[in-house]
Each structure stands twice: as C-alpha cells, then as structure tokens.
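--- STAGE predict ---
source: upstream dedup step, 1 unique chain passed
mode: sequence only
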Amino acid sequence: MDYDTGFNKSGQVIREIVIEDVLLKKCGYKARNILFFGFGQGAMAALASALTLKAELGGIVSIGGPLPSSLSSAADSGKKKNQTPIIVLGGSTSTLITQSGLTDLRRAFQTVEYTKWPKAGDGMPRQREEMLPIMKFFARRLQSRSGVPDDDAVE
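--- STAGE serialize ---
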C-alpha cells in the first residue's frame, strides 16, 4: 500500500475550506491559534496544507508523517522557508521518518523538532515519555501555563 498517494487535492481542501473559509473568515481565528495534530497520512495532509498557506499556523504535530513526495521539490525551490513550527515524532525502527525525510522537512520549514522514540514503528504515544515532547510543544505554542504542573515537566 502506498502511503504517499499525493496530497494536492486534500491539501487544497484543508487550506481553502477548513483554514481560510471556516477558521479564519467565519470563526475569526488568527492563523497563529490554529494547530494540527496528524498521524501518518493525516500528518502529511497537514504538512501539505501548511506548506502552501501564506500565513504562519500555530504548529503541526506529525506522528509518522513525512512531507509528501509531491511537495519535496518545493522544499528545494529556494523559496523562503515556511514559518509554521512543526514537531515530528517516530519510532527508532520501522518508521516513515527517514533521514532524507527530515532533510526535506528542514528545507521546507523554518522550525523542525524531531523526537525519535525508542520503540519500533510510528504508532500513537502510549506513555508519558512519548507524550511529553508533544505536551511541551503545545505548551510553547499556546503560550499558556494554565493547567501545567508546577514541577519542571514542561520546562
């Protein structure tokens, strides 16, 4: 099964209808307050949408989702890097997050964090240590400490 089936249409729908028409225009959100959390192809669709959006989003959490190959050439085009910060997480083995995939992401996005879990595969986080990098990313991007424990869990 090909996980990278092309994301031009889905990226366009997410960008034009979900983000621009609904969230920005109808709901009045600022782009900086919109965050995406995607797993596998959902993460790839979020990355594709952000890459073609002019505004900086609040961030993208990508679990096992590299930049779609159809957009990796955009990363090499010499255009200004996308300002939306992203965090990419994947397993230590049997992962879709390869070194070349990380290189493509770093060419396309200004801020790329990468966490390699000690487990095999790109499954969803199952324990605190796997979820902690995501929680830290959200805390920084949401700029709020409300509900965050007083210990150094987020520091």
